[in-house]
Amino acid sequence: MDIFAQAAKSIISQQEAIMGPLALEQAKKVQGLVIDKASHDVMIEGDKTTALQHLVEQYKQLFGQTAVEVCRQAAKDFMKQVPPSQVPELLR
Amino acid sequence: MNVDSHDSSNPYNAAYTLTYGLLALFGGVGGLIVAHRWGGFKSLIGRALSAFALGLLAQEFGQLVYNYHIYVLDTEPYPSLGDVGFFGSVLFYIYGIWLLAQAAGLRVALKSHRNKLLLIVIPLIFLSISFSVFLREYEFDWSNPLTIFLDFGYPVFQTLYVSIAALTFIVSRKYLGGVMRPAILMLAGALTLQYICDFTFLYQVSHEAWYAGGWNDYLYTLSYAVMGLSLLRFGTVFSEIRKIDR
Known about the structure:
The complex is a heterodimer of chains A (92) and B (246).
Chain A: H1 3-19, H2 22-28, E1 33-35, E2 42-44, H3 48-63, H4 65-79
Antiparallel strand pairs in A: 1-2
Helix pairs in contact in A: 1-2, 1-3, 1-4, 3-4
Chain B: H1 11-19, H2 22-37, H3 44-73, H4 82-103, H5 106-109, H6 113-135, H7 145-174, H8 180-206, H9 215-243
Helix pairs in contact in B: 2-3, 2-9, 3-4, 3-9, 4-7, 6-7, 7-8, 8-9
């Protein structure tokens, strides 16, 4: 998995710890994210920054800024490894 | 029929006291079903809802045992097995609101020194109120250590859950949003109402003004109803979230 997919997987896993199976359902609605049901491995098709931004937005609809902060924490280590211009706005 | 409405043994009071606990039973069972949809014990929200639901069921257990003491054995119910239910419900509520506060963003909020201070100051405020109202002139009777434990335990532990509920309201202003906000705040509100009931109950008992079927029981009816509805609301929110598209 590339670094964006790993960040997405980490975000989904953290959200799953909070809201249970709904987290995976919500992630599946995000265009560009392909999630393996068993392993929860993520593949991103298309623009990776946009897909990750949309994933965070999806959770933000549910919990507001709290969800954004959880996503930031979950993706922090992965986002250090990508150029700042490619980090989704909500994860900066 | 000439009956004294301030008498626990009058049939209207008895009928009311024996039945209103069913609201807690329905709310508790409904809450467990909703919690299961949220992932049950595997998720933070699921665990929080389960804890509140078990708290309601524990309240109903306490009600049944107290009623058995009042109407069948004709003995003082406090302290009795019923307190396992009532005191247990307090512990369930503390656990439930602690989890709910985390879902509302407490962990993030506690990075601020102001909120860390609030985490200490708010319980101290509630504790000092409880001590000044219930325990200031407390007379220790060491022949009944369980009564002493409960006399202190109820007001002290109840301040914990209401303090965390208050903290949830405070941190939610800055962080919590989205479709979950009203549901989480309603549940924290329901717990605050439960605290008002518990506080009033202790106050009336300490002033020998409590009787079965009195207005404190009406308050509890309202509290059980609001708590039950708050739990069921999470079921509605669950369905709403599933309909959300990107």
